[in-house]
Structures are given as C-alpha cells and as structure tokens.
Amino acid sequence: MRRRSGKIQPILIAFLIPLVVVVAAVVFVVARKRSRGSLEVFPDAIYRSAPDNILGNRYNLDAQLESQLAWDEGFGKLFAVKPVNGGGEISVFVPDEAGAANLNMGQRFHMTVVVKDQGLLRVESLDKY
After folding, report:
1. Are 61 and 92 a contacting pair, CB within 8 Å?
2. Does domain 41-128 sit in CATH 3.40.50.1970?
3. N or C: which end of the chain has fewer CB within 10 A?
4. What number is the average pLDDT over the span 77-86?
5. Which DSSP string do the residues of 76-123 spell out, in sequence order?
6. pTM
7. 3: which DSSP letter?
8. 64 vs 8, which has greater pLDDT?
9. Could you give the angle at the alpha carbon of 100 between the alpha carbons of 98 and 106, nearest 5°?
10. Is pLDDT above 90 for 25?
C-alpha cells in the first residue's frame, strides 16, 4: 500500500494562487462600486441657489479639471472643474491627503465631495477615469 506524502500537489498550488487573486480583485472592485453607489449625484442647481441647504452632505461628482486656482504647500489645491453632466464651472478643494499631487488640466475624475462651510466643496476621494 502506498503512503500519500504530506505535500500539496504543485498543480493544485498553480490553480489556487490565480483563483485567490481573481476573487480578491472582484471583491475589491465590487466594494468600491458599492461605496460610490450609495451616494447621490452632486445637485448642481441646489448648490448654486442655496448651498447652505446641503451643508455636510456627501455626493458623487464626475468632473473635468479646467484650471488650478490656488495651491498651498502641505495643505492642498483649489481647482475649477466642469461637471460632466452639464452646468458651469465650480470650485473644489483637493487636500494633499486626497491626492492633490500630479493632477493635470483636462483630466476627468470620479470624486466624492462634501459640502463645507460657505459652500466649499472638499474632495474626500478621487479616481481618474
């Protein structure tokens, strides 16, 4: 009678490693889409007419960078952006911790923004698309 060795077959390892990587990637993508999907689209018309009515709210904003308005080293950058769903330019503040480095005009981003005091739109996260 033959004894089985305690070693895992190399073919099994070669199959399991890619499978685990693919499953982890799918879980990551689905989790990111769900977190974005739970927020409403930025209400441009309400923001322009009465930003105080939406203070503290978080929204999804898809926009293109039009121009850099200001920069403070160690703090962040202020940009004029054009929402892709229409409307005129609006200003957003991108703090350094949200990824303010290496942003170029004309690039488009999915942003999560929060409406702060005096209508400041502060970017919490952004992903280039």
Report:
1. yes
2. no
3. N
4. 93
5. EEEEEEEETTS---EEEEEEGGGT-TT--TT-EEEEEEEE-GGG-EEE
6. 0.69
7. P
8. 64
9. 120
10. no
